[in-house]
């Protein structure tokens, strides 16, 4: 199994306790950094039930996601080399199937922050959130056609539309609790969102919630959900239980 359960290296300086992974029964684990700079773990799980857990405290400044209306869109020729991959289609972000729609829908919008926000507004209104309709095979085009999904589907569709408009966008996964908002009944404090590269920086966007949030703790980034899955299994497995909880202390 490959595990992406650690806090992203960019947030390690905020940790107030060490987020050590615990395994029951004990398992030998090896840490590594993947090609996207995420902290990951490799294990060989034995037959039977294995429990994987972690708990930690982390400092957050309590400020909502940054909003930068003046952030500009780059010409492709001016993009850093390592950003170019986030313009390409990927497993769940099928740009070839949505490019024509993207240009017909968003070509008249102002390039830069306003264009990404217009994409978020569209996805937020177009897709209905429903935990019962989660589908690990659904691509961005599938979400666009079916108009239903979970947080990953909102992110995949928004990322695909951004890439189609020549805006680099990457998938993000992490903790997102009900901090600074009324409690919501949705299970667990785990979410997917995306980042767009504008004005020389990666900025957070969230097409599902479509409003700046407090206490977002990044775990991993990649091209799409394939790169940042909490666990990737090589062999038959069954998920017996899954629980993610964040609390403001």
Verbal overview:
It is a single chain. This protein has 249 residues and is an alpha+beta fold. It folds into 2 domains: 59 residues, no CATH class; 152 residues, C8orf32 fold (Roll). The protein is 19% helix and 21% strand. The chain has 4 helices and 12 strands; from the N terminus they run βββββααβαβαβββββ. The protein has a 4-stranded antiparallel beta sheet, with no helix packed on it. β3 and β4 form a beta hairpin. The longest helix has 14 residues. The radius of gyration is 18 Å and the shape is globular. This is Transglutaminase. It holds the Pfam family Transglut_core. InterPro entries: Papain-like_cys_pep_sf (IPR038765), Transglutaminase-like (IPR002931).
Defining traits:
249 residues; alpha+beta; C8orf32 fold; 2 domains; four-stranded antiparallel β-sheet; 4 helices
Task: Write a short abstract of this structure.
The chain is of the alpha+beta class and 249 residues long. It has helices spanning 95-106, 113-126, 140-146, 151-164, and strands spanning 2-3, 22-24, 29-33, 39-43, 51-53, 128-129, 148-149, 169-176, 190-198, 201-205, 216-222, 231-232. The protein has four helices and twelve strands; from the N terminus they run βββββααβαβαβββββ.
Secondary structure layout plus pairing:
Blueprint: E1 2-3, E2 22-24, E3 29-33, E4 39-43, E5 51-53, H1 95-106, H2 113-126, E6 128-129, H3 140-146, E7 148-149, H4 151-164, E8 169-176, E9 190-198, E10 201-205, E11 216-222, E12 231-232
Parallel strand pairs: 6-7
Antiparallel strand pairs: 1-4, 1-12, 2-5, 3-4, 8-9, 8-11, 9-10
Helix pairs in contact: 1-4, 2-4, 3-4
């Amino acid at each position: 199994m490959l595990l992406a359960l650690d806090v992203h290296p960019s947030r390690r300086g905020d940790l107030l306790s060490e987020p050590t992974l615990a395994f029951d029964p004990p398992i030998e684990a090896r840490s590594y950094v993947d090609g996207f700079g995420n902290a990951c773990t490799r294990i060989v799980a034995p037959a039977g039930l294995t429990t994987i857990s972690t708990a930690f405290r982390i400092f957050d400044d309590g400020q909502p996601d940054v909003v930068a209306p003046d952030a500009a869109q780059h010409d492709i020729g001016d993009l850093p080399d390592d950003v170019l991959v986030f313009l390409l289609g990927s497993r769940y972000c099928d740009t070839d199937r949505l490019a024509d729609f993207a240009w017909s829908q968003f070509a008249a919008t102002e390039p830069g922050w306003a264009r990404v926000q217009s994409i978020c507004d569209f996805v937020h209104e177009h897709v209905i959130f429903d935990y019962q309709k989660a589908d690990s095979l659904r691509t961005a085009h599938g979400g666009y056609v079916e108009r239903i999904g979970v947080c990953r589907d909102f992110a995949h569709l928004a990322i695909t539309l951004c890439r189609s408009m020549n805006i680099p966008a990457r998938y993000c996964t992490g903790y997102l609790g009900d901090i600074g908002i009324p409690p919501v009944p949705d299970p667990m404090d785990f979410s997917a969102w995306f980042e767009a590269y504008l004005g020389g920086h990666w900025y957070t966007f969230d097409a599902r919630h479509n409003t700046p949030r407090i206490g977002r703790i990044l775990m991993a980034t990649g091209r799409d959900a394939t790169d940042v899955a909490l666990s990737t299994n090589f062999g038959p497995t069954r998920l017996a239980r899954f629980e993610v909880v964040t609390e403001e202390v």
